[in-house]
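Q: What structure does this chain adopt?
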Amino acid sequence: MSRWRLCGHDGRGGRALVLDGARVVAEARGVTPDEALAALADTSGPVLRVGEGMAARLPAPLLPESGKTLPGFTQDTPADVLDGWTRLLLIGLSDAQPDWDGVACVLTPTLAHWVHLSAREAVSCLSFLTPRLVTALGGAEGVDMDALADSLSRPERLAAHLRAAEVSNRPAALTGHLLGAELAAARPYWLGQSLALIAPAGAASGRAAALEAQGVPVACHDPDALLPPALAALARLVA
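A:
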């Protein structure tokens, strides 16, 4: 296979790769995807731009029709948008486990996306601002599991729970209450489903523990571990 390049925003900044088929030859980062692309020493081959192009309306196949862009997904009801890098990770999950159907929860630094996958399609999604709210309200990385259970069972009291945690200076309780409310709202996505949690190591431990406490088996995936199968699938389109 010939050389090609991929660039996009991975939730933390611009990221660009040089590939020989599905094998990563070089990598660069920058503030924007174009800055990362310009930082690559190798400028040969076509470029696949992640996150550009017209977003595909759900339900839609995970793989795009061509190898020029990998746009995100859009949904009318409830109104939602999934970025191209999230789609890239979902392609990796689908190619790593071709016969798997279920729900993937993809964590970014600012959002939590719950996506129903079936027959290599993204069927529907439900996204939450939970990571952004945790940061804005001064929550902790650790999760108070009692607070989580409280808001999971009584999500209508979330605002009061957050105020009590704030006054008593319990940042782990703030995180727990926010996550509990998210899990209550996302119950149709995880109840009785096979669940894949895509997040950097350690970032999803509280979420995984909470779901397992509800009897939901959770398979955790590091995003970088899903890149090789995703790149292999895209390389077939670019070639």
